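re: ur question from earlier - yeah i can do the single chain one, its not a big deal. heres the input i used so u can compare w yours
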Amino acid sequence: MPKSLNKIFISIIVLFLLVGTIALYLVYENVKSDQINNYGEILSLYTNKSAETLESFLNEYESDLKFTSSLKDIRLMNQSGKEILANFYNGKKEYLAGITRIDKEGKIIFTVPLNNEVIGLDVSNQDHNREVMSTKKPVISEIFTAVQGFKTIALAFPIFDENNNYDGTLSTLIPFRHISEKIISDLYFTEKANVNLISDQGTVIYSEKADQIGKNILEVQKFKFLEKIFSAQKSVDRNKGVYEALNADYVFAYSTVQLSDKEWIVVLSVPFEKALESMQSFQSKYILIILSFGTAILLSSIIFFRIRRKFEQENIERQLFFNLVAERTGQIIYDYNYSTGVINWAGAIDELTGFSKEQFEKFTIADWKNLIHVEDKEQLNHFETIEKANKYQNVQYRIKKSDGNFIFVEDRNVILENASKHSLRIIGTIKDINDQKLAEQKLIRNKEELELIVHQRTKELEKLNKALEKDIEDIKKREIELQIAKDKAVAADKIKSDFLAQISHEIRTPISAIINFTQLLFDEFKEKENDTFQIAYNSINSAGKRMIRTIDLILNVSEVQAKSYDYLPEKFNIYNDSLLPLFYEFKAAANNKNLTLEIIKETDDLIITRDLYSTTQIFANLIDNAIKYTKSGGSENYN
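and the output i got, formated as tokens:
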């Protein structure tokens, strides 16, 4: 072979090798890019599915707890309320560690399981309880370690009384192993991915590295850790992308879990080398192609087709895995190529639509639209016009099953842009929400019926209120009339008491004068007295003193009724100052009835502190009654 031909051949060989090397390099980069994009899409689908599962789990649990906390028996915490909490716990104890009723002061009223040692314990200093007491809203806590030693979160709901005033909290503990199982159960497809669940406060709720759980990676701004991920990004596509950390590239995807007052984030990341493990053989053979010219074309062709076959096989395996996941979750997965108009279906087609897989694989977009209820067709405008790439949509509409019945479905999809940025795809899932929608419609009907009943009852109450107002007005009039009559009676009674007091004083004065003058006459003529004179004197004296006692009794009664009697306690000798004068006063009256009247003194301790006048009056009445009602010839002794 001439040297010139050798040079040409060598030049051709070198050129061919160079072109082949460049071509292989470009092929490698293209395969690598597709591999990364496809892997990112897989991660994105699974983070979305995991977020949806976790969100559904917590929202369902939150709904049950909200309903329970609104019950009157739970607010009153009576025996029925305790039974309700016990039943609630028994129905959910597979993922519920305990449930606690806390009063508005932050003290424990009741727990399930019952723990008498903590009843009355003040837990208002716990973060989630303090937040509920402050905001009067449901709270999902950050992860913390329970006293039993396991990682957990608390879900707390406020309780309100009939006047809508805060009346305490219903708090539950959910061991995080249940939540982590909800995540891992959806992400078991690969051992390569690093799984993390992070709260909106930057707390690591779940991580494969147990020592990171509970640690805070957020200091100031919300989702600060995602900003750090993006700070050295090479590319990012909505909720997936590539970032560099610790001198290593990672493929990642994340999805947000929407809760009542929180947002959690599920993050999946895979190192490049693991995502590209299937290309390692290609890399080694690529070097051999460069070093060996003779086998460059053959080896490059073999490697190229082997990689293509392997890549296609992986795609087939992924597709089979998608089908398996969709079937087990009762959903349909579709992939619509906007440029070609081709749509691929997979998942629980038979279960959801009633059509066989063979029938459904032939369905085009037009065929699918024909199944849509006529009133809901406008919901599918995302198949007509692609407004913006990476746009998420969530629509609900009715479809007709093979038996002619309509059911409600939820269509969640995302519009994706491929690496060439020319053609667009719509990837989504369709799931049956018929039971949910029927329940919502039933709730709406029940609400309307309840509002009608409330309106009717309100009208009836208004009529009753008017009648009640009239009755109250009549009662008030009667009360006024009764009060006037009462005032008149009190005034008349006071006039009577004043009259008795006055007339008693007027009578007592002349009677006292008669008795005193009788005593003077007796003293004057006692030396000339005879039996007739003695009898007359005793009769006058006894009758006079009896009249004075009667007047004193009237005075006492009138003073008590008029509330003008003054009790004047003093020290006196009950024998000398009270009983002995009464003895001499009643001696004659006793003798006239042939009665013996004696005072027997058995002690010398006779000094007491009382009202002398009242005490004397008591004994006078007793002696007077004794003489009056004792038969002649008897005896009265006073000890």
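The CA atoms of residues 228 and 243 lie 9 Å apart. not sure if urs matches, ping me
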